[in-house]
């Protein structure tokens, strides 16, 4: 089973559209969607309503804890699947990408990370300010953490792993970036990058803040002293044509 973990905060306007697109993308694949929700509005009620139409949807609502990274870890712990994915609730990560990540794991990858910077990918969903922030964060991570230097898009929030990658691994993420913690600390042999196109936000507002940026810098600094130096994984980059070949066959 594939468990898709969705951390959410006041994203009610995107929930039904997101679930509908995931369901379409994963046709023929056994899956569940685990929302880990910290909302202060009616988003939990909307998720419950959607779960009546999509039985694979589950809700974990947190009252006294916040933070994207800890939400994802809770979702991973509660997930039923052997494959674990993380996708944002704001639809800037196209749900169809989940299908291609799933196929990458089925073909032998331990980790799959979509990249905006491979041929066929795009970061067009970001404005100029967020592109500058993203570029700076990416370069800092690649400079300080050797595992991130292997990736073309190491600060993504969209990824999929086999459960054993993090089994027995102590993860201590801070703030909003969970994937860099998984890449730096996990145990795996093969990471596949695939191209994807980052989309414009459909509804709601961005959660990027100065505090989030400072938390990222703190996380990278701490990971420098404790990352898994024994994990010399291989990166394979799929061309756009290989990824799209799965659109011509049924799962």
Protein architecture, described:
It is a single chain. The protein has 251 residues and is of the alpha/beta class. Helix content is 38%, strand content 17%. The chain has 9 helices and 8 strands. It has helices at residues 12-25, 43-53, 68-78, 97-106, 128-144, 146-149, 179-185, 210-226, 240-244; strands at 2-8, 31-37, 57-61, 83-86, 111-115, 159-162, 190-195, 234-237. Strands 3-2-1-4-6-5-7-8 form an 8-stranded mixed sheet. β7, α8 (210-226) and β8 form a beta-alpha-beta unit. α1 runs parallel beside α2 and α5 (128-144) packs parallel to α8. The longest helix is centred in the middle third of the chain and has 17 residues, at 128-144.
- Quick check: average pLDDT? 92
Oligomer: single chain
Number of helices: 9
Radius of gyration: 17 Å
- N-to-C CA distance: 14 Å
Strand content bin:
15-25%
Biggest beta sheet attributes: 8 strands, mixed
| Low-pLDDT sequence parts | none
Q: What percentage of residues falls in helices of 4 or more residues?
A: 25-40%
What's the total count of β strands?
8
Net shape: globular
Strand order of the largest sheet: 3-2-1-4-6-5-7-8
Q: Give the SSE string.
A: EHEHEHEHEHHEHEHEH
Assign the structural class, choosing from mainly alpha, mainly beta, alpha/beta, alpha+beta, or little secondary structure.
alpha/beta
């Amino acid at each position: 089973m594939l468990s898709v973990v969705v951390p959410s905060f006041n994203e009610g306007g995107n929930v039904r559209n997101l679930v509908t697109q995931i369901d379409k993308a994963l046709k023929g694949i056994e899956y569940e969607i685990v929302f880990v929700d910290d909302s202060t509005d009616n988003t939990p009620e909307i998720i419950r309503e959607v779960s009546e139409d999509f039985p694979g949807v589950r809700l974990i609502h947190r009252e006294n804890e916040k933070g994207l990274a800890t939400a994802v870890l809770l979702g991973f712990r509660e997930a039923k699947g052997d494959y674990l994915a993380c996708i944002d609730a704001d639809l800037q990560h196209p749900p169809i990408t989940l299908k291609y990540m799933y196929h990458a794991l089925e073909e032998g990858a331990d980790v799959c990370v979509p990249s905006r910077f491979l041929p066929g990918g795009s970061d067009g969903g970001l404005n100029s300010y967020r592109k500058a922030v993203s570029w700076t964060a990416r370069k800092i991570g690649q400079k300080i953490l050797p595992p991130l230097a292997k990736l073309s898009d190491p600060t993504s929030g969209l990824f999929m792993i086999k459960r054993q990658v993090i089994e027995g691994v102590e993860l201590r993420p801070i703030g909003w970036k969970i994937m860099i913690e998984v890449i730096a600390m996990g145990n795996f042999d093969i990471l596949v990058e695939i191209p994807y196109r980052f989309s414009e936000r459909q509804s709601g507002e961005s959660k990027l803040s100065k505090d989030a940026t400072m938390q990222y810098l703190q996380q990278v600094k701490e990971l420098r002293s404790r990352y898994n130096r024994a994990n010399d994984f291989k990166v394979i980059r799929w061309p756009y044509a290989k990824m799209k070949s799965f659109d011509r066959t049924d799962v």
